[in-house]
Amino acid sequence: MWLRWLPAVAAPVAIASGALVGSLPAGASDPLPAKTPAQVLELAASHQVKTFSGTVEQSAELGLPELPAAGKPSGSASGPSSASSVASVMELLSGKHTARIYVDGKDNARVQVMDQLAERDVVRHGSDVWLYSSKDNTAAHLALPAHTQDAAQGKDPALADETQGAPGMHTPAELARQFLAKVDPTTAVSVGPDVSVAGRAAYNLLIEPRTDATLVGKVAIAVDGASGMPLSVQVTARGADKPAFASGFTSLSLDAPDPSVFAFTPPPGSTVKERPVPEKSHDPAKSHDPADAHGPAAMRGDPKGNVSVTGNGWETVVGTARGSASAADTVLQDPLLSQAAVAVPGGRLLSTALLNILITDDGRIFAGMVPPERLQAAAAAAQ
Question: Which pLDDT score is estimated for 27?
Answer without folding.
Answer: 56
